[in-house]
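Structure, all two chains, one model.
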Amino acid sequence: MDMTYAGAEPKVARRKRSAIARYAAPYLFISPWILGFLFFTLGPLVFSLTMSFYDWPVVGERTFVGLDNYRTMISDDPQFWESLWITVKFAAIYVPFNIIMSFFLALMLHNIRFASGFFRTAFYLPSVISGVALVTIWSWIYSKEYGLLNFMLSLVGIDGPNWLGDPNLAIVAIIIASLWGLGGTMLILLTGLKAIPKELYEAATVSGVPGWAQMLFITLPMLGPMLLFTFITSIISAFQQLTIALLLTKGGPLGSTYFFAMYIYDNAFKYFDMGYAAAGSWVMFIIVLALSLGVMRWSAAWVYYEGEVRQNDGDGHA
Amino acid sequence: MRKTLLYSALILLSALFIAPFYWTFMTAIKSTADLYQFPPVFWPSEWHWENFAAAWNKQPFGTYLTNSLIVVVFSTIGQLISSSLVAYGFARFRFPGRDPLFIVLLATMMIPWDVKMIPLYMEFNMLGWINTLKPLIVPAYFADAFFVFLLRQYIMTVPMEIDEAARMDGANAFDIYWRIHLPLMMPALVLVGTFHFMNAWNDYLGPLIFLNDQSKYTLTLGLSMFKGLHEVDVTSIAAITVILCLPPLALFFVAQRYIMDGAVGSSVKG
């Protein structure tokens, strides 16, 4: 390592300066984040909370309405409940599938040596491209007449449905397209699998513990922290689902894929009712936060933190 | 026997993940005659490379590309500088308020973008930044929590003795950051740069909300608008999609080693 400094100042001058610098330096280093936090996170949070208590058009007079936005939403706006229900339905299917499929793919990759890099890359590739590209690709796969999917189905004698045109199927189509991007989750779980000490399995095998029991009593508990992490990030991304639905189905057909995030988006940028939209976004925030905290608390029952896997920052669990 | 089964399953599954890419590429390069064949043509009878140039010239995609590049290059520079500075500050100093601030930093990762989207729009609107590329670039100069976390974990693995030795030699805090930690964190910086590049390049909602004028569009927004207008021009849409996918894919293959091994482990495991 090269640690010689050309042209270093005399030490005395340095020492004087460093007395002040010692207290200021750390804050100077983290100041970009502090400023960013104030202007792009805390400010907007406070701002949107304030907005949610106002009737706030983009241009024109704004009036304080107290909790009216929230009240209207809950008691007078069927679209609120419909979009929330669609989002919950989506999350209830997407989250478990995302984790279970990622887990099995990771498990398979963990058990092979030859060409494991190739397969890992193959599964991760869709996560690398833009949502716009992803949607474009899937809109053809789902096409009723010329679509790849219906062609495949026709090979086994099934007359393919109109995936994006059928209210019952459109949400399934969105779930499948979303699951195509499970590569990130898979990588996290694969890393977790690799971190489990081999000795545990060796000891278990020597003692005659069958494979399924090793899975149940070694793999799953040891993978607990990673599963928890993917669980929470999956919930967050499920509730924020917007790009795919916006571009693939535009909320249709018959509002069957009108997600909660799209409801917020439309209130803000189509109806320009910023206050009402802000209230919607806070409802989402509270739901996501409550779900995350709930999962974390529930996880205390099944997540086992071994010393070396324990988060060393005290960020909430441990 | 078990291995054979495993590999057959993997080949079948990976085909599901790769086939759509193959299909898109072939769609872009097919002749119109091949396009509407049924059963579909999996290997085109003629290769029409000129489809790419033709598609490119149907809209000012050159302008969109320039805009995308401006956003990506300048925001990546900002992200690398700011996140590494902040990460160094959190990793190497003890100061009042450090731990609570770090917890706040971690907590900001949980806030849904939707909550910030509307006030950010208003904020940028007040600053007169709507319909400029600034909202897509400037925030990157104020460090991203995830990247700070990742880089901090990386700096923590470097023995403190190295910093102390440099201090003995008269190096100040910035020297130590600039001459020691920055070179040492290169692999992690490659990772941050790659991830940020991909996020910025692939971003759709940001441009959708902050840009109005066609001359300001990024490539993702340009493609989605083109798709909306020319739904039937499948060949051109496919060609632009291929072009849109190429940079992140290329970058991914270059930085693959870092992404596959370093990234997830250091960022998640703590």
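The longest strand of chain A covers residues 54-55.
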